[in-house]
Structures are given as C-alpha cells and as structure tokens.
Amino acid sequence: MEETAAVAAIDEIRRHERDGWMHSLAWVLMPDHLHWLFALNKDSLSRCMQSYKSRSAQAINASLRRRGRIWQPGFYDHRVRDDEDQRCLALYVVTNPIRAGLVKRASEYPYGWCRWPLEENP
C-alpha cells in the first residue's frame, strides 16, 4: 500500500475512534488488509465496519487520485471472550508484519499501533 493511502486509512481509524464508534486496542494495516482489535462503543460491528470501509475507501481513492473498490466485501471477526488476554491478542495483531516476512521487528513496521508497549528482543 502506498504511504498516502496508508495514511488515509489510518486517519479514518482515528476518526472513527474520535467519533465514538470504538476504543482501539491495536491495529496493523497490511499491504492488502487490516487487522484491528477494538472495543465497540456504539451501534453494531457491521455498521461500524461499513462506515469505516466506506469512509476509508473514499479517502484512499482521493489520496491516490483514482476510483474503485478498496476493500473486499464482508469481514472476518472474532469476539474476544472474557477469559482471553486482550494484551496478548493486541501484540499478536501488531506482529502480523513479522509473520508476513515484511519486517524482523514489529517496531520497524510503520503502519501499526498498540496501546501496550512492544516487548521485543534486540
């Protein structure tokens, strides 16, 4: 994903949080998809994702000066159970670029964020 498009997508994550849709715990924007762990504050998950995908697609297309589909239809979700460790799940999210072979350390990847500090070995 081009940097201008990535910035547009990330700006929409932050806008959705400011608008009260959710409280982000972690996210990572991969070259062709997004991993996002959050606590939903209002409406339904479907409405939240529809709003994000619509607004971010408009912003990404504007940043690239093009038109067309950005996101695939639908989304995959996993509801976090009470006994699951949110911090561990968040760290799993932001380490996706390592597993994809894009970087050696999560802190090297510019398009991710986690509310907990990354504990990486040098």
Task: Give an overview in words.
This protein is of the alpha+beta class and 122 residues long. The protein has one domain (3-114): Transposase IS200-like (Alpha-Beta Plaits, 2-Layer Sandwich), CATH 3.30.70. The chain has 4 helices and 3 strands; from the N terminus they run αββαααβ. Strands 2-1-3 form a 3-stranded antiparallel β-sheet, sandwiched between helices. Strand 1 and strand 2 (34-40) form a beta hairpin. The radius of gyration is 14 Å and the shape is globular. The two termini are 27 Å apart.
Structural key phrases:
122 residues, alpha+beta, Alpha-Beta Plaits, three-stranded antiparallel sheet, 4 helices, 3 strands
Query: How many angstroms separate the termini?
Result: 27 Å
CATH superfamily: Transposase IS200-like
**Percent in helix:** 40-55%
Regions with little confidence, pLDDT below 50 for 5+ residues: none
Give the rounded overall mean pLDDT: 92
Number of helices: 4
Helix/strand class: alpha+beta
- CATH structural fold name: Alpha-Beta Plaits
* Shape verdict: globular
Number of structural domains: 1
Rg from Cα:
14 Å
Instruction: Please write the CATH class name.
Output: Alpha Beta
Written as H for each helix and E for each strand, in order along the chain, the element string is: HEEHHHE
Strand proportion: 5-15%
Largest sheet: 3 strands, antiparallel
Strand order of the largest sheet: 2-1-3
Number of DSSP strand runs: 3
* CATH-defined architecture: 2-Layer Sandwich
Q: Concise description?
A:
With 122 residues, the protein is α+β, with helices and mostly antiparallel strands. Helices cover 40% and strands 15% of the residues.
